[in-house]
């Protein structure tokens, strides 16, 4: 399965411990963060749908990812028990959390928009 | 230290089956004196670092299918990569020539190898691989049966790393209610 067409843009920025506060805790508007691992098969299944959702929600909601293998402290700080875990933020506060998402377009869209009532 | 003039096999270090095969290849390639004709390494978790090996290489694709990076910048994947690896290992090259046999444009042994690779790829979750993706429908009953057997034999095996939800439980949508009690790390 192709996760992204060759040469296409990755619409989801990867956050690190250094950039998380600026983009999420001090971020403006609805934000969804996927805590993931590149070695996680389920994250791989979700990825193409997540890219589509990021494109659809451009300007309405920001989507980020955190690689838990690269930033274990960050995932431990948010008590992430497994991957993929989606945590939604608004005004720097967690407003929703979903673990073990369904790898479908509708499933991903529902998860990242539900706490914010976003129309798309 | 890797040799850029030799092909590099990338294997999924998070998958126990792939990890064992990858390390076997690494050992087999270095077994005889002289320059090894192949290098092998785990994919890792840094997409940018992986792109330094080949600009077209996507880390998601690398985890989805076995990749062999050739020194000329091309990439072989799946059964084609396996055939090339077998051609280069001293222990296996004696029979690996058969994968090049072509009958009217059809490569029977290569096709068999491709099928074998696809089956191995599908059944990896049976061996407890948490990085192998969503199981195929035909593999699910076997995995469930093995999980059931394991749960009966050992109730409390400690978990070494963060689990992937595909392997821990059926995916469940549990949207947390908004509220101050839910705020973490802020």
Name the shape of chain B in a single word: globular
Mean pLDDT over the residues of chain A: 90
Strand proportion of chain A = 15-25%
Looking at how many chains there are and whether they match, the oligomeric state comes to heterodimer
Characterization of the model:
The complex is a heterodimer of chains A (120) and B (186). With 120 residues, chain A is an alpha/beta fold. Chain A has a single domain, classed as Glutaredoxin (3-Layer(aba) Sandwich). Chain A has helices at 17-25, 41-56, 72-77, 105-113; strands at residues 13-15, 31-36, 62-67, 85-90, 93-99. In chain A, strands 1-3-2-4-5 form a five-stranded mixed beta sheet, sandwiched between helices. In chain A, helix 2 links the parallel strand 2 (31-36) and strand 3 (62-67). The longest helix of chain A has 16 residues, at 41-56. In chain A, 48% of the residues are buried. The mean pLDDT of chain A is 90. Chain B has 186 residues and is α+β, with helices and mostly antiparallel strands. Chain B contains eight helices and four strands. A four-stranded mixed beta sheet of chain B has the order 2-1-3-4, covered by helices on one side. In chain B, helix 4 (78-88) crosses helix 6 (108-123). The interface between A and B is large, with 47 and 43 residues.
């Amino acid at each position: 399965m192709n996760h992204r067409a060759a040469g296409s843009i990755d619409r989801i920025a990867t956050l690190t411990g250094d950039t998380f506060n600026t983009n999420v805790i001090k971020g403006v508007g609805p934000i969804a963060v996927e805590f993931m691992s590149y070695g996680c098969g389920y994250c791989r299944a979700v990825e193409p749908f997540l890219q589509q959702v990021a494109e659809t929600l451009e300007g309405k909601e920001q989507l980020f990812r955190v690689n838990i293998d690269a930033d274990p402290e960050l995932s431990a700080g948010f008590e992430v028990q497994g991957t993929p875990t989606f945590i939604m933020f608004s005004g720097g506060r967690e407003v929703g959390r979903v673990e073990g998402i369904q790898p479908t377009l509708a499933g991903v869209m529902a998860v990242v928009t539900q706490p914010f009532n976003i129309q798309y | 230290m890797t040799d850029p003039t030799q092909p590099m096999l990338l294997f999924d270090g998070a998958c126990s089956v792939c990890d064992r095969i990858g390390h076997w290849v690494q050992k087999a390639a270095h077994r005889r004196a002289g320059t090894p004709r192949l290098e092998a390494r785990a994919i890792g978790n840094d997409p940018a670092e992986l792109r330094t090996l080949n600009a077209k290489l996507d880390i998601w694709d690398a985890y989805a299918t076995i990749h062999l990076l050739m020194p000329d910048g091309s990439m072989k994947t799946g059964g084609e990569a396996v055939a090339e690896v077998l051609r280069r290992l001293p222990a296996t090259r004696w029979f690996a020539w058969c994968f090049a046999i072509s009958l009217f444009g059809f490569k029977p042994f290569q096709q068999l190898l491709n099928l074998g690779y696809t089956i191995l790829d599908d059944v990896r979750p049976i061996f407890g691989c948490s990085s192998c993706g969503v199981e195929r429908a035909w593999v699910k009953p076997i995995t469930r049966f093995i999980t059931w057997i394991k749960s009966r034999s050992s109730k409390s095996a400690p978990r070494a790393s963060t689990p992937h939800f595909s392997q821990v439980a059926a995916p469940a949508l549990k949207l947390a209610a908004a509220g101050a009690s839910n705020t973490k790390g802020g």
